[in-house]
Structure formats: structure tokens, C-alpha cells
Amino acid sequence: MSEQDAFRAEVREWLEANCPPEMREPIRDEDDVCWGGRKFRFKNDAQKAWLDACVAKGYTVPDWPKPYGGAGLTPEQTKILRQEMKRIKARSPLDSFGIWMLGPALLKFGTEEQKVQYLNPIARGEIRWCQGYSEPGSGSDLVSLQTFGEDKGDHWVVNGSKIWTSYADKADWIFCLVRTDKANKYQGITFMLFDMESPGVTTKPILLISGNSPFCETFFDDVKVPKTQYVGEINRGWDVAKYLLGHEREMISGGGAGGDMVSIGGAFAKAFGKNAAGELDDPILRAEMAAFDTDVFAYRAMGERFMDMWKTGRAHPASSNMMKYVGTELNKRRHELVMSGGGSDALEWDSEDSKGGARARSWLRTKANSIEGGTSEVMLNVIAKRILDLPGA
Amino acid sequence: MPLYHNDDQTMLKDSVAPFVAEQAPVSHLRKLRDTADATGFSRDLWAQFTEMGLPGMLVPEAHGGLGMGHMEAGIVLEEIGRNLTPSPFLATSVGAVAALAKAGGTQAGRWLPAIACGEAIVALAIDEGAKHRPDRIATTATRAGNGFRLDGKKSFVLHGHVADMSIVAAKTDGGITLFAVPKDANGVTADPRRLVDSSLASHVTLDGVEVDADAVIGEVDAGGEILDALLAATRTGAAAEMVGVGQGAMDMTVTYLKERKQFGKLIGEFQGLQHRAAHLYGEMEVARATVMKAQQLLDEGSEGAKLMVSVAKAKAGRAANLAVREGVQMHGGIGMTDEYDIGLYMKRDRALAEFMGDVHYHIDQVARMNGY
Fold it and tell me: What is the pLDDT of residues B197-208, one digit of tens each?
């Protein structure tokens, strides 16, 4: 048996023993997602048991080094773990911006002390992070951000506001881009970390077209941030932010945007019924769904290739922009088809039958996919300039 | 297995890419076209391919080949695509070899070594109408004497007029049977037609063609599985070639965007074109990954291969088509001239897209394989 086969067998056995049956059921609502953090309340014992088991094994962040709460797995082993989890339909034990975004940034730019201090609570699901990037006047043109940290010797005093801070009202800490030099656009931003319970931080949820409020406006009014709480170098936060945006794009394009990647036509054929030839009984919808499924299966192969290359340093550093662009556009298309397939049932907004308007709300939510984390148009700009090397305007 | 080329495959690419680019660039195609070459490809070039062992890449070592996989064959096909090289590689070294290797037996022993040493060109006589419908084969094989009598019409048979042997799919009493029909068999007429991409494909008439019982590839009535192997290999190969065609067209176009000036600017500075080029890049990357996945699954003998092959043929078809259309459009007027190569890419893409099932055929297959 090869080393990989042995590892696969070991993982399989461990999952069998540790993943509760309830955690192998599909995710039905937001409560089924474990985000961790000080304010998080487990939905049931199985959710907690699954998290505890993964934390003990380092499997919430399998590819992080052991001293920081990970399992120290190689890319190949991580892929095997992912495949085996998918095989038994295991849910993710812990989702968090700490894992997807801050973690990778700290692993690259953090000091040893910061890694130990911040990564372990992320891995254990104890501290939930949110991201303070966009501002009311700084969306796609993020680098124009105005939130300012005034230098007070051993600390900064931060004033300003952020927008689209996902789950800011539920998060414990924020990683935040703050201008520390007004004269220098790109090299005048510092990547700060601070507690959301710091005096002067307030959040206000934003009601979206989906009727939900996953995003907040976040206000800073004389917030004191010790000068130890920054990542990378002072005034060089843009480097960290750019690196981290790559991971955000990786996340949005990977799990998020692709959805579960199952055949949409196969699912809808059951609801629609089939004709005598066994075909979905609406030829144009069938054709559109089949074309979409083809693109989804293709994108799944792309996702596998991208991850294989990304994890081994073979990918073009800007290729996550392409993944984000293709993946989010695909997800929007999926939800358009879900709405078409669902007909008038899918229009229901709050009935029990519609699970509180789940389809309609999800459809509307996906419209943000190609806006958040860099719009599709910004992604295309980046691909054009950094990958295709087309001349600047 | 990770979804990128390993060291050996990278080495193969590093030797094949410059070889094809130097020996058979687009000017090679032009020369064959402009001299109305009657063979449809260069036998000298095929001899050079043979020196490198390429015709027998997929032939098992026991039959004198290199015993490589579809991932490796795809590397060669991508370069053939990028250079628009007329070559019997896809039909002979990929499609025919896949069928013969799957079937084994007398015909495998007869033809695989001949293919490996570059002596035999094999054609695939599958299609019968203008569209690819391998589930509706009407050509019949009826028992006669010691063997069979074949009757029917085949179309889109690449290299059919020069092939040493044609693999003919025919209906038998209990299913489909594949036959190895040699060039000199009585009753076979090949009528070669020059296609839009300057390749030669034949309408083949089989009029009472008598073959021995041992002309059967595999077993009588059991040709379905062998045909599936032939189709999967050829479709994946055509998809890999299309990735090469699309990439070649895209590279040429992106280069042009950096050279051509209008309104006092390089046209590549215009965001309208930048976004379209960037979108095309994404589509091409997805197509490339998809084709590699199909190659990998075929090489692993995976059950999932069939779905991924159709996904690959459809996705590569869409992406390469976008590449050639954007290529001509972004080149502007010069893209419409025969002198410029971009139009040749559009022509080759059109022919490859049609070969062994077009985008629509394969999207329909994706639906069927997913139960709708």
C-alpha cells in the first residue's frame, strides 16, 4: 500500500469514528453552519462534537502547521482528506474568515508570536473574525480608503467607517485596512487587528434585496489600537490586503460559488417530470440546464487543477481572479435556472413550503457574488493586465 | 494524481512543442493546401513523427509502442492544434489504437505494431450522415461464406482515401461489430472531399465488401464497447487539439492587441477589448483543465470518464470557437484576409468541432448521463 493509500485508509477510519451521522446531512439553513466565536451557539450536540473532534485532530485547518492548530498535512494529504469528507458528505466542521482569509495572511506576513496568538483561537473556533475593507466611498477603488489611524506613539486612534463588513455584528475581532499616511496612496495603509468590543466600535446591519442582513456598516469613533496589533509592516498593509484578496477570491470561487456542483438538470427533472424519451419535459429549459451542467462540470475540473497548482506554487498569482470571475458568474447563472425551474413556487417569499423564500432569497444573494471581493469587471481588468500583459489605459 | 503535467510530461511537451513548431508550422499547412496535395498530410513529416516514436505513443509496449496515456497523446495533439498541422495522428494513433488495444486479438496483433512503426495509416469509418449519430449506424454486416459482407455508406472519414485500413462500424444480428477493412478490399470506394480547413475527408461506399471472419475487431456483436473506447479516445483527442487551436488563436490575438494602433493607442489599451480577451482567457483555462481531467480519467480507466469526455468535447468546442471568433473580430479587416493565419484557425476549429460530435451533441449527452 502506498503512503497515500495508507493515509486515505487512516482518514477514512477516523472519519467513520468521529463524524456524527447528523453532520453528514446536507446543510439546510444558516444555523447548520458552524462559524465559531464568542457569541456562537451550537445548534446541537453533534455540531459541537464534530468541531471538537476536528479541533483535536487539527482538521479544521488541516494544512496549517501543528503549532498553530493545524494538522500539518501536505497538499496531497489535504486533498485526500477533502475527498474523503466529500465522499461521506461530511459538513465543514468550521467556517470562518479567520480560516479563509486572515489565517493565510498571518502565515505569510505574521510574526511567530502573532501566529501562535491568533491562529490557534481561529483553528479552535474560539474567535470569529470579520473583514474591514470597503468603505462607502471606496468600493472597487479600494485603495482610496479614508478610515484614518492617527499616530499616538504606542497606539493609533482610528476614525472612519467600513461597509459590507460580513457578519460584523457576530464577529469578535476585525482585520481592517486603515490609512496611516495620507500622502502615500498605496504605501500609506496599515493592516490592523482589533477587538470589536473596543470602545468606539459600532455596527449597523444593512438590509439587502434578499431581505437578509449578512453585511453591516461598521463605525470607528476614536478606537484605540495598540501599535503591536498590525500585520506586516506599517504603511505596507496593501501588500497584505492584496495577498489576502487572492485567498478571498480562492474561497468565493471554490466552495462558495460552485455551490454543491451537482447536476441542476438531474435535480429538476424529478420536479418537472420527463417525457416518454426520458428527457426533462421542457426542451429549452433542458438545453439551458444541460449547457449549464456542462460548464459546471468543466469548472469543477478547473477548480481541482487550480487548487493542485495553487497549493504547489505552480499557479499564476493572479489566476485566483479568473477563478473568482468564472465561478461567481456561473453561480449567478445557476440561481437564475433554479428560479426558472421553480416557476411560481420559487417566487414565494415567506411561506413554510418555500422554507421562508429560500430560493428567491438565495437567488438575490448570489447577485453579490460578482460584486464582493472584487467585481467581475475588476477581475477582468486584473487578468488583462497581470496575466495577458495588455497595455495599461 | 494532481491535475497538471508531471516532470516526464513536461519534458515530452518541451521536446514536441519546438519540433512541431519548426517542422510543421502554419506555413506547412499552406504549402499542402496551395499545391492541392492529394494525400492530405505530409508523409515526410509522418516519418519524422515516427523517428520520435509518436505514432505508437498509445500502443502497448508488447505491440512495439510506448504504452503511454491520453495525457501524453494530448500534449502532442495540442501542438498539432496550435500549428494547424495536417496529420493522421488523431485518427490513427489515438482513435484506431484505442479500439485495437481494447479489442486485442488478431487485428490488434496485425495493426498495432504497424501503426507504432509508422507504416500504417488507419481511418475511422463511423459517421454515416452529416451529423455524428453513432447510435444509429445503418451499415450492415451479414454473414457470407467464411466471413461477412458489408454494405453501407460512411462519411467524414478522415484519410479514408489513403488509409491502409479502415475501422468500419456495422450492424450485425445482435449488436454492433467493428471490422478492419483493408485498403484493397473489393467494393470499397473512397471519394475524398476537400473540407473548409483543407483537410481531406471521404465519403466511403461499401458495396458488398467481403471480409474474412478474422477481420472482426474483438467479438461479433460486441463492438459497442470497443466503439465506445474509440469514440472516447478520439473525442478527448479532438478536444485536446481544439485547446491547441484555441490557444494558438488566442495567443496570436493577444499579441496583435499589443501591436495594432488605432486612435493613437494600442488597441489592447481599450477596456472593451481587454475584458473580452480576459473572458476568453478564463474560458480557455477551464477548457484546458476539463480536457486534462478527461485524459486523466481515461488513463485511470475510471467510470466517470464518459461524462467528462463529453464535457471536455463540449467545453473545448465552446472555448476554441470563442477564441477563433474573437480572433477574427479583434484582428479587424486583416482577420478576413487569406494572407493572415487567424482565419485558418477558424476553419480548423470548425472541422474539429464537428468531428465525433459537436457541442450540442455532447451537451445532450451530458443531460442523458445525468438522467434527464
Answer: 999 999 999 999
